[in-house]
């Protein structure tokens, strides 16, 4: 292989986007044992990206001897910092046809039938809401013939329950499906993208210690890390060492690129933003694929009140404002009917123009064109991207709104310390749900000692 060929191979992303107009070429085939008949079948693996979600590994097995087949999906990314709970109201045929990505750790609940599929009882998969119901029916039907002879009473009760599950698909009455995943790697398709989905409510929650252990996550104290570990990010200072000035230091630690998974490094620095607070900025630049990203976290914890920041964007001067968006902050542009939740665009330190450009790039990258429904979504995203182009060309004025319940977001005032007439900042009391998302409701703050 030539040197140029080697470079091209390194720079090509391991996880490729699916293109419906092109044949998939990056499928890996492995001969493997069939668990049904004991003969050899074929397992196919595809590393790909799911739009509006993340990188995944899709695996499909097929046995030509007995006809047995199955498929499963595994997340190729890291475990998320928080778990996710998705509450979906199923009201029509489109809701039944929503795409769903489930991990091994997804627990599925149907409150209307008091029915739950426990976490780790099924392998992860790419399916639909109807597919989840069908898989539950198949599982309950599997041993019915044996039950009829050994325990007819139980078999009859299961038969009645299967009929109730099947009846859900007729939609004679709406029902609610709850998907709860401690790994945070479950996703339900938004039929209204890029607008908020009125039938789907997503909540991110903090895991308990037992849930962290179920995922294989342990603290250094729990695994008994030996003293003097040279890999520690901030090793203890000796008695004669000078005090460490974090604001003057840039810390570097190894990581993997979120796009191509190649080894790279992340730089981290503590800095203070004028008229705001201290923040931690982390930046990654991958030499293999060229991916660049920055992430920002508050260095001062959650504020007593949330903050809502509104700024009028109509000129090049407005684009130059420094902007800090925390990972808990939602972005809204009322004129475009655009709302991006806190996890759509992560925490970052950029400018107003940089944030709008990121939103536009994300919309263009995640256009879907699989069927009639997806074509409608694709058309809506394309129209929105064109309007964002007009905003970036100062042909259309909009109001950019940052809504952060944690109070850790900021937009630069161009007249500080005097009031800025184009910038409105409102502090508000958080409601119960917002405190729940931030993990504050269960936090013990009295008599802590």
TrEMBL record:
Transmembrane segments: none annotated. One of its GO terms (biological process) is system development. Coiled coil: none annotated. Keywords: Metal-binding, Repeat, Zinc, Zinc-finger. One of its GO terms (molecular function) is zinc ion binding. The keyword Transmembrane helix does not apply. InterPro entries: Znf_ZPR1, ZPR1, ZPR1_A/B_dom, ZPR1_jr_dom, ZPR1_Znf1/2. Gene3D superfamilies: ZPR1, A/B domain, ZPR1, zinc finger domain. Residues 32-190, 255-413 form the Zinc finger ZPR1-type domain. This is Zinc finger protein ZPR1. It comes from Nezara viridula (Southern green stink bug).
